[in-house]
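Here's what a typical entry looks like (Signal recognition particle protein):
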Amino acid sequence: LSERLSGVFDRLTKQGALSDEDVKTALREVRVALLEADVSLPVARDFIKTVQEKATGQAVTKSVTPGQQVVKIVHDALVDVLRGEGDPGKLKIDNPPAPILMVGLQGSGKTTTTAKLAKRMKEKDGKRVLMASLDTNRPAAMEQLAILGAQIGVDTLPIVKGENPVQIARRAKTQASLGGYDVYMLDTAGRLHIDAELIQQAADVRDVANPRETLLVVDGLTGQDAVNVATEFDDKIGVTGVVLTRMDGDGRGGAALSMRAVTGKPIRFVGIGEKMDAIETFEPERVAGRILGMGDIVSLVEKAQETIEAEQAEKMMKRMMKGQFNMNDLRMQLEQMIQMGGMQGMMGMMPGMGKMAKQVEEAGFDDKILKQQIALIQSMTKKERANPQILQASRKKRIAKGAGMEVSDLNKLMKMHRQMGDMMKKMGRMGKGGLLKQAMK
Ligand code: GDP
Ligand code: MG
């Protein structure tokens, strides 16, 4: 996908404000990216429409292409949709014992997530947690929770054969109060598909426990189906948040966007592996980058916006077109390069440029050289910087010595300056259709 998108961007090289056509071309690709990431069609359609209105006519930051700029706009809009209200990592666990109900389909990761969250609350919040398995369908499921509990040092409710989920929930509640626990977690049974019995069971348990949090656990790889599951559970049980599991896999996380857009429920945590520590608070930026698969371009645009002051660059370009490219201009350019992560950093961020970044590295053209060149320029007087042509042998010696370098280093810098100046003069002369003129529109 990255490749296809960068292909489109290459064609969109003129700069200025985003035209209708730029936006449409880029958004066609973004739409494909969304669908490939399992965002549902109506959600993708709505989303694209919003972005289209936002993007058209927006000014393009110099040094990035319109396509890149659209991706940044799309990314920010994704983050807006994904971000719920409040702090996703903060569970309501005051007023002990606070019940937390875990629901979801079979195999979505409920039991694992129950234990991960219990460990987190124990370690981060210093809470005493009791976990209870309500999975009466599979005796092995109860064992599974007990084993995880022993592993992380969290108590589990003793298993009593023959009880139904509601009875277990009651016992957990009593035990949590008597035992002085801060939190008790109810890990329910799942089904492969949602059905009336499963929902009824979860509703009965909810009525007994009156949970402070009802977390829906959803497999991040399931895609489209996740939206139906989330809608159904929320309608019938009422959920306070979603946990997306298996985000360590190949899934793109599009389900997250659909779920947010359709149910409005906040995503709270993300499961990123089978181990007990493999859980993170949900970060919309990360998932947005993943859905687009274009995280690098987003950071490139952000950096460009941070470091380049459009006005300053424009002034410089005007001077350069007249062939007045002096050492101060060169220094500004070198400094901008360093700010943007140096040559390698910049190229590494551009799709398809990774190889070139490596060549640059091998050629020894790194930040150190940029800094040396800046030091040489700093060693010049004001007059010398504005008119580098006055640099004769004695001045050169003084400048090189001042910067702790050789005259040959200074000669290299001057050669580079001359070549850049020549190139810019040529581009400036191309007249109205010239590259630089067009870039300044
Ligand atoms: P439940 O049926 O909903 O209780 O699901 P389980 O908690 O038993 O999890 C089913 C399987 O998914 C187990 O093998 C877990 O180790 C695995 N699993 C759960 N969460 C994650 C995750 O975030 N990443 C990965 N890679 N595996 C997970
Ligand atoms: Mg389970």
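The first strand starts at residue 98 and ends at 104.

More examples are in the samples folder.
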